[in-house]
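--- STAGE predict ---
source: upstream dedup step, 1 unique chain passed
mode: sequence only
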Amino acid sequence: ASWSINNLGPKMVQNDFAPGFYVEHFVKDMGIALTECERMDLSLPGLALVRQLYIALKAQGHARSGTQALIAALDVLSGGQGDY
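--- STAGE serialize ---
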């Protein structure tokens, strides 16, 4: 079983974006990882894509939300309002 699904899934369903780990810190950490990947000539396109999704989430006003708020960015990408 996945810790993320078991613990964050119910929060997503309830639109509970109280932070366990802030989106803004996650974006920073992914940036550090991508910088190291570049230094090592390593490509991680999945990480780059996820970072872009979280940057979009920050732009929607969720910098201080928990990482489970990603559902709001995905809602906007699918034509929703993302107004959680």
